[in-house]
Design a protein that fits this description.
It contains one helix and nine strands. The chain is mostly beta strands. It has an eight-stranded antiparallel beta barrel with strand order 1-3-4-5-6-7-8-9. This is Lipoprotein.
C-alpha cells in the first residue's frame, strides 16, 4: 500500500512539473507562419491540393488562419477561433470536436476543420 502511494505521489510530482503555464507560451507571440505541404479544401465540389504558407493572426482572444497557396488559388480563411493552452505548451481550439480540430505547437500546425460543406485539412511544419 505504501509503495502504491509513493508511486502515485511521485507521478503527480513528475507530471505537474511538465505543465507550462500561459506565461511561458512560446507557441504564439506576435507572428506565427508555417509552410504547409499537404492541403485540401473543398471548393464547390472540387478539391484543391497544393502547398503554400499559413499565417496565423490574433485579435483579442480570437485567432484567424489565412492560407496563401503557391498557385494563387483563393482559399477562405478560418476566422474567430478561440484557442487555449494545453499542458504540452501547445494551443488547441476550445470546444474542439473531431470535425473541428486545430492544434498549434512551436514546430507544426494541424488543422482538420469542417464548416458546413467546406473543409480544410492542413499539416504544416516549421
Amino acid at each position: 500500500m505504501r509503495t502504491i502511494l509513493l508511486l502515485i505521489f511521485g507521478l503527480i510530482i513528475l507530471f505537474s512539473c511538465n505543465n507550462e503555464d500561459d506565461v511561458q507560451n512560446t507557441v504564439y507571440k506576435n507572428e506565427y507562419e508555417r509552410r504547409f505541404i499537404i492541403f485540401q479544401d473543398s471548393l464547390e465540389n472540387s478539391i484543391v491540393k497544393d502547398s503554400g504558407t499559413i499565417r496565423v493572426s490574433k485579435n483579442n482572444n480570437l485567432y484567424k488562419f489565412d492560407f496563401e497557396l503557391m498557385n494563387q488559388t483563393k482559399i477562405d480563411p478560418i476566422e474567430n477561433i478561440q484557442m487555449e493552452m494545453t499542458g504540452s505548451n501547445s494551443l488547441r481550439n476550445i470546444n474542439w470536436t473531431p470535425t473541428k480540430f486545430i492544434m498549434l505547437s512551436r514546430d507544426s500546425i494541424n488543422i482538420s476543420y469542417q464548416d458546413g460543406k467546406r473543409y480544410w485539412l492542413v499539416n504544416a511544419i516549421k
